[in-house]
Automatic annotation (TrEMBL):
The gene is LOC107592909. InterPro entries: PMP-22/EMP/MP20-like, PMP22/EMP/MP20/Claudin, PMP22_EMP_MP20. The keyword Lipid biosynthesis does not apply. Residues 1-17 form the signal peptide. It comes from Sinocyclocheilus grahami. This is Epithelial membrane protein 3-like. It is a multi-pass membrane protein. Keywords: Membrane, Signal, Transmembrane, Transmembrane helix. Belongs to the PMP-22/EMP/MP20 family. It is found in: Membrane. The chain crosses the membrane at residues 68-89, 96-118, 138-159. The keyword Nucleotide-binding does not apply.
């Protein structure tokens, strides 16, 4: 049981780190090494100065919904971890981590909604950008999709996990 508890804790920390990276880093859509777009900025590589020049992303309703869902998932997963730590030390023997599991499940659904919206509405989100056919999804977008099953598995494990000690 201690091994399962450690596994769930490590899984939670890994998914939380991946959520932070997917939300904050600059690569949801990429045009090679010359331009990247994320949830907050559009960055272009300047050859003359060999630096990245970033400007705020153009707000659209779809982009704001993706931002909101990603922030919601980070907040829910963070709350879930803090509550788990609190329950670990204060819960009576035999208790089940329902609240922690539900927060993780809702965080997984929030990331799913954000990634799905970005997938389906990328032309509206990236409206005044280069041709979409020449670009591709970045690693942060892929991290968001990887977080979905990990968060759902973590949530399901928490719901079935009982405190033994």
């Amino acid at each position: 049981m201690a091994l399962l508890l450690m596994f769930v804790t490590v899984l939670h920390l890994v998914t939380l780190a991946m959520l932070f990276i997917a939300t904050m880093e600059k690569s949801w859509w990429s045009w090679g090494d010359i331009e990247n777009t994320d949830l907050w900025y559009k960055c272009t590589y300047e050859n003359a100065t060999e630096t990245w020049l970033c400007a705020s992303a153009k707000d659209s309703e779809w982009l704001q919904s993706v931002q909101a869902f990603m922030i919601l998932s980070v907040v829910l997963s963070s709350i879930s971890f803090m509550v788990f730590l609190g329950q670990l030390f204060t819960m009576s023997k035999g208790g089940i981590f329902y609240f922690t599991g539900l927060c993780q499940l809702f965080a997984g659904f929030a990331v799913f909604a954000a990634a799905l919206i970005f997938t389906c509405q990328r032309s509206a989100i990236l409206q005044d950008s280069r041709e979409l056919e020449k670009g591709h999804f970045g690693y942060c977008y892929i991290l968001a999709w990887v977080c979905v099953p990990l968060l759902l598995i973590s949530g399901a494990l928490y719901v079935h996990l009982r405190k033994r000690a």
